[in-house]
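Sequence in, structure out.
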Amino acid sequence: MGKAVENKLKKYSSILSSSFELFSTKGFSKTSVEDIVKKADVAKGTFYLYFKDKFDLREKLIINSAQKLFDVAIEQSGYKNKESFTDKLCAITDVILNEMARQPLLTKFLRGNISWAVFHKSLEHGRGQGKYDYIGILKEEMGKEEAKYHDPEIMIFMIIELISSTSYSVIVENDPVSPDVYKPHLHDCIAAIANSFKE
């Protein structure tokens, strides 16, 4: 890698990491482009080389953050060793929850900024930095089941919405219960959603 390319990557990464910290602590609406470039120690013109505006930056940051989260989940969950599709989903979910608990700023950022449209882009293979075709992997695992599933993307959407909407308080505030107490209940709900999509 040449020095010029390395320098560009360094600036891009600095903008992403600085904006992530600012969005997570100050909030998106209270963070300006000026705040971001000052923290990243780059010129304002450099910001606009990579991003159209603050909204474009946020979308790319969400995609990047979600992809990294799912990469870890795919690699560490051991889902291939699980018997049923729901067990595989629950294994992947557990790693996601553990990572979110380990990274409270990430949890706060994703909770405040995520939407299905942006999250769906982060699940698509070849977008940003993701290593895997996440939806493709889940569909492949569904296909190994004796039972068939209808509308798999709707099912995945519902499960992602369930996890993202209910996990924040549990992970960040241990409210109403700790993550360890919560996980079996979440598993039951994931299984119920998956079973409702069986043909």
